[in-house]
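Deliverable D5.2: sample structural annotation.
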Amino acid sequence: MSPPPEHVVVVGAGIAGLAAAAKLSRQGVPVTVCEKESFPGGKIRQGMTPLGPIDLGPTVCTMPWVFDELLDGKTDNLMSRLKAEPLEVLAHHRWPDGSRFNLYHDPARSMQAVAEFAGLAEARRFQRFQSLSRRLHDALLESFLKTARPSLAGLVRRAGPAGLVALGQAWPFFSLWTRLGQLFRDPRLRQLFARYATYCGSSPLAAPATLMLIAHVEQCGVWRMRGGMKEIANALEQTATGQGTKFLYGREVKAIHVAGGRASGVEWEDGSRLQASHVITNCDLRALSSGALGKQVKSVVPSRQIKERSLSAITWNGLADLGDEQLEHHNVLFSRDYPTEFQDLFGRRTLPESPTVYLCASDRPVPVNHQPGDRERTFLLINAPADGDKPEKNWPALAQAACAGVIAQLKACGINPGPDVTSFDITTPADFHQRFPATGGALYGGVTHGWRGAFARPGVATRLPGLYLAGGGVHPGPGVPMAALSGLAAARCVMAELESGARSRKLDLARA
């Protein structure tokens, strides 16, 4: 049985694909989602421990308003439905010299913390930084982040005078590292906020200074899910299913078909096909350019937009006695030499000898019944080059060697997890490459380097009519809410095309 004339196939049930499906089905458009895995979520995934599930991908959520568009934001929103918990401490930071610093949701408390950490003059600089971050966010939200087809001319036109002033003050033609060096005198604060470049898998030495807007995004709130980030994917799947979307799990798309000069459906591994009026791909751009989705769509994205790979990672997860009562849910243990770390990752394409370590203590703040010596769910991550497809690199051996450096960094920052870490489950760039073919394990699409970096990401529309893109490698970028925004943008483009076609058919009938 052929599908109806207006039928959208979404390839991939990552957050972007789920958002697109929920948006379209809410508008009454028939949608089928094809996912090769047996579950939704894409890079959102979980492991299981005796203490419950543990996040192995994204660990927190920001910008919850993005998801309210998929629900009834007045009486039903994602954060209340999932009983999400806002974090009072956005992140706990440490350095090998013994320095410790908490960044808080309450701006006044953060100001006080900066004053105590680095002095009153630095606190005043931090206040100016916060103001600039807010104005950047406000200038770019509508003019850039929410647009389906970003361009420099469009940004200038939409940003308005105040927005252009904020952009000028951000020094968009300079790197994040350079601009932060002008804003702060304390090298630790420069390092802390430079880490935002890694949120899009890039180097702070080359990423544009406009990424400072992430500071305001986090200041607006960071939430964790009681059952883990998988709850967001499950909620979006349930929303879409309730509105009529069909999910086909365990069905890997072999090719996207083209007929009459436009995308016309998909073909599965067994040779069967599903027709469609539109196709939205929630996959890495290299899956298209490598021909993994068929020769007919191999060149739909300009090669200039398939850029240098972003960062990958090595992760460890399991149960450990962290001991330290000052740890929070989000913890960052900084290396001594940040520039060298990224020169290793991007220049020499090696693992840093002393890496910055991200530690997610899933059970923090410490529960009331926690006893000294109790083990906790622990997730550790270090950045790695996206060379998971390089046969000359023995990633299991590299990860084992890196584990010693991670433990040394933990101890240098006052944390002694004991021997548990050495028996943790490990994920390497090779594992990520296997899950996301043609990527080398890159977790964020292409890098965002240089002032043109943000514009180099393709918009959701492609050269091929009827084929749209969504996901972290597409505008506006990686991260749970950003990927969802790309899915929403793709859905709006499909709706606009369907509505335009419906108007044309009405005119044809009227003329007849």
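Annotation notes: The chain is about 35% helix and 20% strand. The two ends are 30 Å apart (CA to CA).
The annotation will be released with the project's public dataset once the embargo ends.
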